[in-house]
Structures are given as structure tokens and as C-alpha cells.
Design a protein that fits this description.
Order of helices and strands: HHEHHEHEHEHEHEEEHHHEEHEEH
Strand order of the largest sheet: 2-8-7-6-5-3-4
CATH class of the largest domain: Alpha Beta
Helix content: 25-40%
Strand content: 15-25%
Radius of gyration: 22 Å
Largest sheet: 7 strands, mixed
Bound molecules: pyridoxal-5'-phosphate
CATH topology of the largest domain: Aspartate Aminotransferase, domain 2
Number of strands: 12
Distance between the termini: 51 Å
Shape: globular
């Protein structure tokens, strides 16, 4: 049956958004699975942080603070920056989306190191912009000359994550500084996984007005569901982004938890030590089982599966055993799975499932 009203409504969509299909609803996720597919941090909150969340619920009838002021003040003080150098977001992905909105007109280009955080593809599409995907150099190094003199030279901004998702590789801060110092483009440095890495570039923010550093509390501070993220940069850039932010973009719980996490960062040291320890343990165990694991500086591992099967096959087998891992639908990574690092029992369950699957597959193949 033709629905003329609907056709008329849909034809009013903007030219850019008309290219996007209607989003289907996915089934309810199975909460009983071991979830190792989106790099959360599955540990309980420090008691003080939890108390601040509960106390914030008593202010549920009030709108949250305008412009996230206390949270921005606390974040600025924690990193010896000024409040106008900080934007607070409903997750760092909100700040990322503001950058796309603020800097891109339809037809503009943006450069991203690839493989990289796939959400950037959607953000570029939503702006009608062209995403230039620039490959990493040997062992995940930064191709500085290519970024300075190749097609990325014309991009409105250059985006890279350090450590990178989905590889977990880390580039030295000196290389990032070399790019930022020599480029006149805005460099957006996504440090979502920095707490599992040896160094950060945040100290460069006071030196270079073309650097914007993104941080999130989703990965290392165990509050992915509460949505707390930040951008740190020059006040003139940060102020432009704050200006286009949704009214009351965060809620009172996010504000309270964000401030409390900043006050209790040391309470997470053991959590971060655990993740690095498990990362090494699982990496070694997987390599003993025939996987080839990229050395990781994040809270996940990218593992190339043993020959004969691909990442999607492994993902499906693991899911039947109620373990969720990610596959990366990118050229060259079809044979990989990405596994978040969780608690010891979660990682033991994952490794036991891998051993079972390998054992069953070997006997099935030798029977043929
Ligand atoms: C590189 C990178 N940046 C940003 C995000 C999103 O972080 P948030 O939860 O703060 O929106 C992710 C989440 O997977 C990520 O991998």
C-alpha cells in the first residue's frame, strides 16, 4: 500500500540525511553474557563515587547545572588547566560529534588514521563530508610526512586515537608533538584509552592552539553507562564547541560522578594495574593457542585468529558459549577478533571457551 503522507514526510528529510536508511531495532541484549565487545571496565565504583551518584539522585527534580560548570572546573583543576580550556560531554563521543558539526560543511574533508574508531565514519557521513582514511605506518607508527604533505593537508581536521582503537597500538608523544607543531590543521587526539598507556599528550594543550585532546571516563573509570567525557584545548576552540552544545547535555548524576571520579582517581590505580596484568596474561595465553596478538596499550586485545577460520566464525562460536567479542569489518582485519579485558573470572571463561572451540574444531576437521 502506498503511503503518500509518509513519502511526503520522507522527501522532506535533508539531502544528507536522506541517504541514511531507517535504523532497524536490534533485539534486547542478553545481560547474562560475558561482555567483552565494547571495552567497558566491569569493576564496581569506589564507594565514595557510588555515594556521590546516590546523593545526586536526590536532586533529580532540578535541571543540571548550566554549562557543566563545576565539572569543568574540577577537570581543569585536576590537570592544571583553566576552566575555559575544558568542555564536558555526555561521553567523549558527544564532544567528537560537536567537532564534526562545528568544522565541516558538506563537501569538506576530514582525515582519520585508519584503522580507527569506526564511529567517525558515521559522523563524517552525517555532515556530508569526505573521510580520508590514512593508513598507519610500520608497527602502528604515525606517518607524519603523509599527514603534512599528502591529501590530509586539505582536511579540516586530522583525527587520531592514542592508544588506537581497534589495534591498541601507541605512538610516542614526541611524534604527536612533531605533527601538531608542524601542521596548521586542528589535530583531534582521542585519548579514550590513555590510562592503560605509558604517556599522554595533555601537557601539550597549553603549548599548541591546534591540539584538542578528548578523554572519557567510560574505559578506565567504569562509568560508560553514566556518560562522562571531556575535550581539552584552546579556549577559542573549546568555547565554540560549548556554544553549539545541547542545553543540559549531561545529567545531575553524570556531573556528580564526574566530579567525584576526579577527586578519587587514585582509587582506580589497582583497577588499572589489574587490567594491564590481565592484558599480558591473556595475550600470552592466546599466543600459546595459535593467535597472533598485537601488543596493546589499551584495555583490549586485537588478536588474529589461527589460520582456517575468520573473525566472524570465532565471534559466532564464542557467542554460542555466551561470550561476546567484537569483529572489525575493515579490510585486512577480517581474521581478527577484539577482546576487552575484564575481570579474572571473565577472562578465564573466555580462554576456556577458546580452548573448547579450538579442540572441537580440530577434531571435526581431522574427522573429515
Ligand atoms: C577511540 C574511542 N573514542 C571514543 C569512544 C567513546 O567514548 P564515550 O563512551 O566517552 O563516548 C570510544 C568507545 O569505544 C573509543 O573507542
Amino acid at each position: 500500500m502506498s503511503d503518500n503522507k509518509l513519502q511526503s514526510v520522507l522527501s522532506s528529510l535533508s539531502q544528507v540525511y536522506r541517504q541514511l536508511n531507517c535504523l532497524p531495532s536490534s533485539p534486547t541484549p542478553d545481560a547474562s553474557c560475558v561482555k567483552l565487545n565494547t571495552n567497558e571496565n566491569p569493576f564496581a565504583l569506589p564507594a565514595a563515587v557510588m555515594q556521590s551518584a546516590v546523593a545526586a539522585l536526590e536532586r533529580q527534580y532540578l535541571y543540571p547545572e548550566d554549562d557543566n560548570i563545576s565539572l569543568r572546573e574540577a577537570a581543569a583543576a585536576s590537570y592544571s588547566l583553566s576552566t575555559d580550556q575544558v568542555i564536558a560531554g555526555n561521553g567523549s563521543s558527544e564532544v567528537l560529534s560537536l567537532i564534526y558539526k562545528a568544522f565541516l560543511d558538506p563537501g569538506d574533508s576530514v582525515a582519520m588514521m585508519s584503522p580507527g574508531f569506526a564511529y567517525n565514519r558515521k559522523l563524517a557521513l552525517l555532515q556530508g563530508a569526505q573521510l580520508l582514511e590514512i593508513g598507519w605506518g610500520d608497527s602502528g607508527s604515525l606517518p607524519i610526512k603523509e599527514l603534512l604533505f599528502g591529501p590530509a593537508k586539505e582536511a579540516k581536521f586530522i583525527l587520531l586515537a592514542n592508544p588506537n582503537n581497534p589495534t591498541g597500538t601507541f605512538v610516542p608523544i614526541a611524534d604527536i608533538e612533531s605533527l601538531v607543531a608542524r601542521s596548521d590543521r586542528l589535530i583531534v587526539l582521542d585519548e579514550a584509552y590513555v590510562d592503560f598507556a605509558p604517556d599522554s599528550a595533555l601537557r601539550l594543550v597549553n603549548r599548541y592552539s591546534n591540539l584538542l585532546v578528548l578523554r572519557t571516563f567510560s574505559k578506565s573509570y567504569a562509568v560508560a553507562g553514566i556518560r562522562v567525557g571531556f575535550g581539552y584545548g584552546h579556549p577559542e576552540v573549546v568555547g565554540r564547541l560549548r556554544n553549539i552544545q545541547n542545553l543540559f547535555n549531561m545529567n545531575v548524576i553524570g556531573h556528580a560522578v564526574g566530579v567525584s571520579v576526579l577527586a578519587h582517581r587514585a582509587a582506580y590505580n589497582e583497577n588499572h594495574r589489574h587490567i594491564k596484568y590481565e592484558r599480558a596474561r591473556v595475550s600470552f595465553a592466546l599466543s600459546q593457542l595459535g593467535f597472533s596478538v598485537t601488543p596493546s596499550h589499551a584495555n583490549f586485545l586485537l588478536a588474529r585468529v589461527p589460520a582456517g577460520r575468520d573473525g566472524t566464525w570465532w565471534q559466532a562460536c564464542l557467542e554460542r558459549k555466551r561470550i561476546l567479542v567484537a569483529v572489525i569489518p575493515e579490510k585486512g582485519l577480517e581474521d581478527c577478533i577484539r577482546v576487552s579485558i575484564g575481570t579474572t573470572p571473565q577472562m578465564d571463561a573466555f580462554l576456556a571457551a577458546v580452548e573448547d572451540i579450538l579442540g572441537a574444531d580440530t577434531s571435526q576437521r581431522s574427522a573429515v
